Each structure stands twice: as C-alpha cells, then as structure tokens.
Amino acid sequence: MLLLTCPCCGVTAEETEFSPGGEAHLKRFGPGSSDDDYETYMFQRKNPRGVHFERWRHAYGCGKWFLAARDTMTLEVFGTYPAQTTEPPPEIIAKIKQKRPEWEGFK
Amino acid sequence: MTRYSAFAIAREAFRQQSGWKQAWSSPEPKQDYDVVIVGAGGHGLATAYYLGRRFGIKNVAVIEKGWLGGGNTGRNTTIIRSNYLQDPSAAIYEKSRSLYETLSQELNYNIMFSPRGVMMLAQTEHEKRGYLRTERANALQGVETRFIQPAEVKKLVPIINLNGPRYPVLGALWQARGGTARHDAVAWGYARACSDMGMHIIEQCAVTGVESENGTVSAVNTTKGRIGCKKLGIVVAGHSGALADMAGFRLPVESVALQALVSEPIKPCMDVVVMANTVHGYMSQSDKGEMVIGGGADGFNNYTQRGSWHHIEETVRALVETFPMISRLKMLRQWGGIVDMTGDRSPIISKTPLGNCFINCGWGTGGFKAIPGSGWATAELIAKGEPGPLSAEFSMTRFREGRFIDESVAAGVAH
Is residue A106 included in any domain, yes or no? Predict the structure, then answer.
C-alpha cells in the first residue's frame, strides 16, 4: 500500500484514495504531427525498472491531478509535486539522486 | 531421453528408482547459436520446441536469468480457454487450447491437462449482452461455447449463490472444453523435449546487453559471457521493456503486478473453473484441494512480485457473496507476477526495428493459456522471418496503424 501526499490539498492518504494515471511528462502531439511522434505519444512508454514519474488523481479527496516520483522496483515514493510543470522540480531530482546515486536522471 | 511410461515406473520400482535421468541438461553456453531465445518460461520454451519440431532448427539456446518457469509460468491460475471475441485472438487461443489437449502425449510428460470446463459469469445486464455476443462470435470462429441460464449454472456449480444482492448471476458463458493444466509441468515438459533435441537451456544467466550493428543483432551479453546469435527472440513477459531498452527500441507496453492466492486445501467442492469478471475474481479448485483465486491487477507500473492487500480484499469480498461457503476458509499463500499490458490487452508477436530480432510479449494477464499457440506462431515468425497466419495481426505496428485487437472491452480485466 502506497502512502501519497496530495500537493493540492496537502492530505496524506493511502493509495486507495487515489487513482493512478500512467506516465507523466508525456509530450503531446496532435493533428498534423508525424506518425512517429503520434505513436510515441499515444502508445510507447518508458516502463522503467526503477525511478518512474507518473500521474495520480486524488479521486476520493480534492479530485485534482498531481505528479509523483516513485521507484517501480521498491515502491518507494520519492515525493509528489503539482501537475503544472513539464519536468520534475529540482528538489525532487535532488532527493532521488541522494537515494539513487546511480540514477541517470530525467530524460 | 528415457521415455516415461507405466512400464518405466514398474522397472524403476525394482531397482530403487536409480535409473531416472535428469529431465534436461544444464550445459555451459557455446560461443554462438543459430537462434537465442531470452526467457525460459512457457512461451520461450514452447518457441524453442516448435523451432526444432516444425522447422528443424535445433542449434538453439534458451537463456534465463532465474530458474526455469520461475516467472509468470509458475505464478498464474492455470486457466485455459479460448472464448475470445475478436477473430485473431480466438484463432491463436483456440490453436493453443487444441495443442494443450494432446500435449502430454506429444511431450511424453504429464502436464495434467484437465478440460473441466470454464464458466464466465454474467452478473450485470451489460455483461450478459456482451457474452451473448461472444457466444455468436465464437460460433462463427469455430470455438465451442454456449450461453447457459442460471439453473444450469447452479447445476454445474452447486456451491454458487445465484441471488446475491450486489452481484446476481444472470447466466454464464460456458466453454466445456476449457480447463486447467499443471503450470510448472508445461515448462518442464517443453524443457525436457528441447533438451532432448540438443538445445541448450541456460539458467541463472541474465542478459546485460544486446550487441547490434547496422540494424542487426550479433550477440547478447550475459552474466555468463557473450553469446553470439544469428537470430534473437525476446520472450520475457513483464521485463520486455527492459530488454527492448537494451536493444534500443521502445514498446507499447507497461508492466504491472497481478496477484493470486490459494486457500487451505479442502474436500472437492467445485469441479469447474468460474470467472466473475465484473468483480475481477476467478476461482477453481486444484487437485490438492486448494481454492485457487485470482484477482485484479495493480493500476500502476510495478516490478515487485508482491501484489497488494486491498486488491485481495476487493476480490475476496466479492467472491464471498457469490460463494458464501468460502467465507471461513483460511488463506494459505499469496503471490504476484509482473504482467506486460498493451493498450488493447492483446499480445505482440512481432518483428522489431532490428532485422533479426523478434519479440513475443504483451500477454498481460492471460499468457498461460496461450503457451503452445504462442510458441507455435513465434517459432514460425523466427524461422521464416515473416509472420504466419496466427501471428500476422499481432504485429507491434498495429498501434501505429490503428488496427487494435480490442480485448479490453471483450474480456474485461480477468483474462
């Protein structure tokens, strides 16, 4: 059972109060984009073993979307942050680097 | 290979069981092979087996990072059925089911195939209509299924409660020729047959990198050294993303944990497999008497073979309403496996951006039933370099081309 803190309302709760929403920071490609870009955006996923950035929704709370950094091998949650960003904030990156020195960084 | 038979058992009884040979050998890897298969689970071993049997390609190595059949092959609920909605799915799963029927004889290894019948309960009006549709689709596909009424459900499964307040049983899709098999034995039987053909099964050997130049794979680097190959097959289920990353391409796949549990053993009480897809629960009774219960998958990317308690609670809570007698059973053990989910919940048997590298993955929550058919089709793809009729529709380019084989609507989550 994951424990997540919603950065919108500040509540810390068990994962049953949230719904997972898949990989975060996807670059969106719409009409007029190339087939390659569109396929990458729609279907291809990093699916890493290790550090993963992902979307969550506080479904049974404030209802807002937010983002989380989590390890898929250990289920450790490094932190959560607001969804209004195109890449993980520096404090989250620093926290991951501290715990996972071998991590290659956000790509 | 010493053949297993009643005569062999009698002979060994007279010489204190001293004549049994190791079922498969554990050789050191050679410098190179015609074909290297990564992953010695059911699908990988079946692929190697049919490469040898159908196409005479026997200079094959199957490499495995753990032990044989220790991944999802040993972690599923052993259900075999082929009542799928879409034509390509029905074709490959029905091929698989029919191969299972004679697999024990073919491999000379008892896989304990038990065609006890698989029942998928309709517990909402929507689900009932869906199964009536599947029944008709199956009739056109040549898959024998029948929609049965609640009275017949009760006759086949006396322990069921038809009038649950939340989940009443409105009927069921019944496939009499579906059933279960001994999952480990499927891997062991194929491994023994592969080893007998002179193939190498190399356990405790993890792949650390894929060597390629000009779009062609030349070797895989492993913890037991470099192994050259003319063709490479990647058949690693939940870890497909990691292998694809080593080979330099990405997949339309995400890995999640799916879990199952068994109860303490009890006397025989249910001799068919029952699936309740509305509540994401399915149950059968093993030959040892344990109630084998499968549940839903975690919703987030996950590589821990654990599962989570709240999913067990959801599954069991719903099943207790349908099967009140299991409410006082103790749970014996619980485990999780990492399944590779595609967007349309159908598998990938496909060429890759690397010319001589092929991939079989994306079986998600329903891989065990597909082992023989999947091996059959993947062997054809690897041997000929082009997909055969069973695998043509399962190319990974189908996402880009918009040709989904949508079983997420057809089959729900339990699979």
Answer: no
Nearest by CB to A72, from B252, B302, B400: name it: B302
Residue A107 lies in a domain: no
Interface contact flag, B254 A44, Cβ < 8 Å = no
Q: Indicate whether A105 belongs to any domain.
A: no
Minimal CA–CA distance to B164: which of B47, B366, B317, B355?
B317
According to DSSP, residue B370 is labeled: G
pLDDT digits 0-9 by tens, B172-216: 999 999 999 999 999 999 999 999 999 999 999 999 999 999 999
Q: How many domains does chain A divide into?
A: 1
Q: Are strands B281-285 and B273-276 parallel, antiparallel or unpaired?
A: antiparallel
Q: Which domains does chain B have, with CATH numbers?
A: 23-82+84-108+183-252+344-411 (3.50.50.60), 118-178+255-342 (3.30.9.10)
B144-153 confidence digits (pLDDT tens): 999 999 999 9
| Chain B residues touching residue A71 (CB < 8 angstroms) | none
Domain that holds residue A93: 3-99
Q: Can you list the pairs that B152-159 forms with residues at least 24 positions away whose Cβ atoms lie under 8 Å?
A: B153/B119, B153/B121, B156/B117, B156/B119, B156/B272, B157/B119, B157/B270, B157/B272, B157/B274, B159/B269, B159/B270, B159/B323, B159/B325
Among A59, A56, A64, residue whose Cα is nearest residue A9 = A64
Q: How confident is the model at residue B299 (pLDDT cuts 50, 70, 90)?
A: confident
CA atoms within 13 Å, Cβ hemisphere of B180? 20
Q: What is the DSSP letter of B397?
A: T
pLDDT of residue B414: 46
CATH code of residue A70: 3.30.2270.10
Q: What is the CA radius of gyration of chain A?
A: 15
Nearest chain A residue (CA) to B257 = A72
